Amino acid sequence: MRVFVQLVTVMVVAFVGGQGIAQVQDKPWPMLGVGLATAVLALVVYGWVVRRTEKRPSTEVEWKSAAPGIAWGTLIGIVTFALVIVNIAFLEFYKVNGPGQVFPGPVGLFGYMAAAAVTEELLFRGVLFRWIEKATGTWISLVITGVLFGGYHMLNPDATVWGGVAIAIEAGGMLTAAYIATRKLWVPIGVHFGWNFAAAAIFSTEVSGNGSNKGLLDATTSGPMLVSGGHFGPEASLYSVLFCVLVAIGFLVVAWRRGNLVPLRRAARVEPAPTLSQ
Fold it and tell me: Whole-angstrom distance between the N-terminal and C-terminal Cα of the chain?
């Protein structure tokens, strides 16, 4: 029941915020404002509902660690995506035609990506991963929520089966591993935001099959889908899978050293209580 209440509460904020962004999507400054407001409201509401339903401090969204966590995460996300683009460009499947725009594209995209990163991390890492991990352990929960995350992105307009699989592996793995390593949501929020912002607002590529974007660079992507990602965007590139898996492994090593991995849970380990008939 508690997990249901938490999911519904965050989903309501995400839905309302999404509707607000849709109403101002052609107006960069309002879009920036609505996106940031949605992100902050979602965090506040998540912290409140966790405290109310679990009777504990919402340490995973503890505000004092927000700035460094988001900053480091954003840097990791941007650098990781840049490595993907560099490798695609090396094969001449990503070409920069010239400078793009600072306004209006990147301004509005900043707010949109902030809202998306925060609400999706709260739902998939803050609620789903955390509760499934309690029942099954870290590894099974990582796989289950990765599959769910990939399936969620199959709803996008230009989604492909391979794109969903790639998202499940790379984003489901990397973002969840970032949470496991820190047991805070700030770093995965930062990584998620940095990756998406770099893809859309810097390199002007498609993000998860959501159409083209106009960012700081005027660029074109071409070539085989497994290299460039096709209409789904570079997230469907094998380079994205490779680099995200490497980052995920790095986070998981940190998690292991910190003792943050929860062992596999087995129902068989729990002996049923004796009854009068026994």
Answer: 32
